[in-house]
Amino acid sequence: MNILVLGSTGFIGRNLSNMLENYSEEDFPNWPDLYELGDSGQTLNVTGASLSTGVDLRNYEQVADLINNVKPDIIYNLASHGGSLHYVKEKAAEVINDNIQMTLNLYRAINSSGKDSKIIQPFSNCSYPGFSDVQKEDAWLAGPVHDSIFSFGNSKRTIYYLSKCYEMQYGIKTVNLLLPNTYGPGDSVDPNHTHALNGMIIRMLKAKKAGDSEFVVWGTGSPVREWCYVDDFSRSLIAANTFDSMVEPANIGQNKGHSIAESAKLVKKACGFEGEIVFDTSYPDGAPTKILSDEKTSHNFPNLKFFDHEQGIRNTVKYYEDKV
Q1: Which residues neighbour 286 within 8 Å (Cβ) at sequence distance 6 or greater?
Q2: pTM value?
Q3: Which CATH number is 2-183+228-255+290-307 given?
């Protein structure tokens, strides 16, 4: 089985590639019946591609050559242009253009190749309506995304439309997933290009090393967010292989969240920071609540077990301690 991971040098891509390359029944004793990868003695041939490996997914010819050379059975489309709230607003045109162009090139190349490849791709839950509370799949497109992530959220919605149209006309199979904000070891050390919770951990570790008496949290601290530990993210992508096609996106949700202030306190404890946490309300909060309903998750992915949030923060702090 040939597996192609696009965005393989990114945070999720590296984690997923490592998990696939080390897949065995001994490592994941509860998974083989569900996930089916490696059944019947199949060998998993994992190929990674990203700008860092010399493949510009914005270039159609390069994408077409990649598909023709790898002949993938499964493609994990993790290539994405994103960043902090401030970054995706400042670079709004580039963000939406790059994300749509990369995916359009992918679908065109698969169709031209004649290969029966299946695409598995995650969408951030920021693509839900900005006013949503507990986010349920049936209401995914029931209103506009929040203004703070206009470019990124709408690029993911457009990718959904692409996947649906290419299935309608050409029968290309896609499994779309909706996931919350990710955190964990292995992300960037740049707070502007890392995921939100990792960015907070990086900044607090720097504050501790600098001997700061205060740590500033951007915004009021009141927004509630659901967080997905990086290993859980990769496991859900592997689990998605059991579906032949699922264009209408399915949540990977826990129906549970933490306020930014609560997470900041957990980060403070894990870092051993002794200063005071203060809130800079001049920064926008973003959507007030983003929690994914787990109603369909428990049905679609009954074997998924989610990592403890506090332990995940401790693991992430440990990863960054000697890197910032």
Answers
A1: 85, 146, 148, 149, 219, 223
A2: 0.89
A3: 3.40.50.720
